[in-house]
Amino acid sequence: GDSVTQTEGPVTVSESESLIINCTYSATSIAYPNLFWYVRYPGEGLQLLLKVITAGQKGSSRGFEATYNKETTSFHLQKASVQESDSAVYYCALGDFFGGSNYKLTFGKGTLLTVTP
Amino acid sequence: DTTVKQNPRYKLARVGKPVNLICSQTMNHDTMYWYQKKPNQAPKLLLFYYDKILNREADTFEKFQSSRPNNSFCSLYIGSAGLEYSAMYLCASSPDCNQAPLFGEGTRLSVL
After folding, report:
1. Chain A residues 17-36 within an 8 A CB cutoff of chain B
2. Percent residues over pLDDT 90 in chain B
3. How sure is the predictor about B62, in pLDDT bands with cuts at 50, 70 and 90?
4. For residues B94, B99, B100 and B101, what is the CA-based torsion angle, rounded to 10 degrees?
């Protein structure tokens, strides 16, 4: 089945430092699945951070970026300068089809990020 | 309203008793999902409805039931809760396969 592997946390970074959270994927049904980063801030629900549905393109949101690399099957999340408010759990996910037009997301385990002042 | 609502936020259940969790959305989304999230594990898809058609994952087929009486409402039903059902249950909805599913805040179920 589909799988997503991401950086194991927890990850601690100082404010204004750069960040990279690695994500690699394996999709069984289609060559180019949709790719997502979701984030869960403390006390809140899971929310979409960014998505890319076309291989080779880059998505960005709130200073975060991720590029869909089909050669390395990766979708790493990067930010040049993190802030304390970025402290959260980050989930990489892929969207794939199965059984015809059925569509579902497969998630990684999540990476807990703590940004220290 | 562009949110997915889940009730209750916290649920306490006894071993062997039934549990019913509720999810609703008023965005006219075709697909509604239920995921289970345990500590240090990835959110795991349990089942989903595409319109009125229920799809359940093979490895959780017998453990969870669901109903969707109308487009807005979807429930997750556990007939007899066991300790292993303690988890966060996440509901999500999506209008189509190219839109990222929108998640609710989740229901934390504790089985004692």
Report:
1. 34, 36
2. 81
3. confident
4. 0
Tokens matching residue A76: 């790493």
Check B103 against A47: CB less than 8 A apart: yes
Q: How far apart are CA B91 and CA A86, in angstroms?
A: 24
**Segment 56-85 of chain A within 8 Å of chain B by CB:** none
Chain B residues closer than 8 Å to A52 by CB: none
pLDDT band at B60 (very low <50, low <70, confident <90, very high): confident
Instruction: Report the candidate in B108, B112, B91 with the shortest Cα–Cα distance to residue B9.
Output: B108
Q: What is the DSSP pairing of strand A111-116 with strand A88-98?
A: antiparallel
Percent of chain B whose predicted confidence (pLDDT) is above 70:
98
